[in-house]
Write a structure and sequence with these properties.
single chain, about 260 residues, alpha+beta, Helix Hairpins, SH3 type barrels, Alpha-Beta Plaits, 5-stranded antiparallel beta sheet, 3-stranded antiparallel beta sheet
């Protein structure tokens, strides 16, 4: 009778404890998602809490049956330590994934340069981040490599500045060149008026006079406006018969390959 009573109580502890742990884990998950936490990390933490709570319930049920749980807990702790040591790299990637999701240095759709790769973020998981390059390659990077290095996010801000350097011959009139560059900027409605575009003589080179052209555009228009503006400047300089010894262009972030 005594053992039967203990068995019934252990079963009740197991059933009620399992129900309570599941309810609390789901409540925690919904609460985190409601507060703006990413659903991926919210669901993972909810499952983690459920597993830990269920382990405690099982230990309590075994204790009710008279099983010595001290050694059982020690075995679980030793096993957890062994697993942790074996999965050091994965755990560091997991911690980095949590930071990526919570701190949000980038999000899905952003164009970034990180860990020697430039491309659009396709997916951020708890262990890896998937990036698609401009030539449609898929690169999977461990989160620890991303979080421990520099992340250049080209689409984080709503506006970007186009940086061009235009070289013309020494025989070209400075006022005429600046007027042509201004006309090319004013002719494109996608170029923002605020901040005001900058046109200035930057350098007297060995064989050319170099002017900087720095207009601001919306981020999504950056590359289209950049290419069309450069073509427009070349065409207008040709129409004015202003000699260009050779085309020079210093594009901001020009060292990054495979940009869209």
């Amino acid at each position: 009778m005594t053992y039967g009573t203990r068995a019934v109580l252990a079963l009740l502890i197991l059933l009620l404890g399992r129900w309570l742990v599941r309810w609390l884990s789901r409540l925690m998950e919904r609460s985190m998602v409601k507060r703006g936490m990413d659903i991926t990390i919210g669901r993972f933490l909810g499952n983690l809490a459920y597993g830990a709570g269920l382990a405690l319930v099982i230990i309590a049920a075994l204790g009710q049956l008279g099983v010595q749980t001290a050694s059982f807990v020690a075995i679980i702790g030793a096993a957890g330590l062994a697993v942790g040591l074996a999965l050091q790299g994965s755990l560091s990637n997991f911690a980095a994934g949590v930071l990526m999701i919570t701190l949000r240095p980038c999000k899905v759709g952003d164009f970034i340069e990180a860990a020697g790769v430039a491309g659009a973020v396709h997916e951020i998981s708890l262990f890896t981040t998937m990036i698609k390059t401009g030539d449609n390659k898929t690169v999977i990077i461990p989160n620890s490599d991303l979080i421990n290095g520099n992340i250049v996010n080209y689409t984080y801000e709503k506006t970007r500045r186009i940086d061009l350097v235009i070289g013309v011959s020494y025989q070209a009139d400075t006022g005429t060149v600046k007027a042509v560059l201004r006309e090319a900027i004013d002719a494109d409605p996608r170029i923002l008026k605020d901040p005001e575009p900058v046109i200035a003589l930057r350098e007297l080179g060995a064989s050319s006079v170099n002017y900087i052209v720095r207009p601001w555009v919306n981020t999504e228009d950056y590359w289209v406006v950049h290419d069309e503006l450069l073509e427009s400047i070349k065409r207008r300089l040709d129409e004015q018969r202003i000699g260009i010894p050779y085309p020079q262009m210093d594009v901001h972030f020009h060292s990054v390959a495979n940009k869209p």
